[in-house]
């Protein structure tokens, strides 16, 4: 744990010293937090010295310049945001003391961090998970979990859409925003975000998995099957399967299948989108299949597709790597 800064390491600006004493006594900050505040204000003092100005005469333009310098030096957007928070606190205190008329950090924001790419499985891993059969599990449980994987990966469903499916279509289910699967037509009718309904094709493997599951669905409940929940996927008490249960079962199944990455439902949705786009290059079709209202949301998968192409290039092209 970080210790309280020693007097030798404290900034020499008297206003900074007063502020640090204020936050130490009045706010009772933890020692580590106080150390971080001190380091951040030391950095600000160094920047101020570089433009030959005292801290209390810095303007927003100066702060923005300092942010640009930190960013070009490799500091992450999140790290800069934390530093700005410490600086903002100092100038807020200075304003209350009547030392500055305006907080120069007030409207300065850190650079936006790039959005991380959605995590998708490689094709081989996705197929391995879909083909996996847990021979040690009860047939009822194995049939259900296999059908869950096939719908998530084969149709790109959200986990909420999956657990919202009913075993049989009904006007009441449709009014209440619950979907269903038409096995004969090979279509899943789901209600996504904003209760927006869409239909997605259900492939042959998913149809077969669902048929196997439906043949066993009521088996453990015997005569009490009439009281089963109307959900397509149910738990061992006959009630609709929850999203949390799907997360837990999928994580366990991916580990049993030998995947090094713990898989969650949305990862299979990302994998579905990425693999369809790799094969078809049809961004509009992927948008419709995923139920995205805006195609810019779908375009993130083009970045995944480019990563795939880049890996193929690096592995296959004679000029991809320079000989040392």
UniProtKB/TrEMBL annotation:
Keyword line: Cell cycle, Cell division, Chromosome partition, Cytoplasm, DNA integration, DNA recombination, DNA-binding
Subunit structure: Forms a cyclic heterotetrameric complex composed of two molecules of XerC and two molecules of XerD.
Gene: xerC
GO MF terms held by the record: DNA binding; tyrosine-based site-specific recombinase activity
A GO CC annotation given for this chain: cytoplasm
Protein name, entry field: Tyrosine recombinase XerC
PROSITE patterns membership: CB, TYR_RECOMBINASE
Subcellular location: Cytoplasm
Cited function: Site-specific tyrosine recombinase, which acts by catalyzing the cutting and rejoining of the recombining DNA molecules. The XerC-XerD complex is essential to convert dimers of the bacterial chromosome into monomers to permit their segregation at cell division. It also contributes to the segregational stability of plasmids.
GO biological process: cell division; chromosome segregation; DNA transposition
The keyword Cytoplasm is annotated on this UniProt entry: yes
Annotated ranges, domain Tyr recombinase: 116-314
Active site per database record: 158, 193, 266, 269, 292, 301 (o-(3'-phospho-dna)-tyrosine intermediate)
Similarity remark: Belongs to the 'phage' integrase family. XerC subfamily.
Domain annotation Core-binding (CB): ranges: 10-95
Superkingdom, taxonomy of origin: Bacteria
Organism: Acidovorax temperans
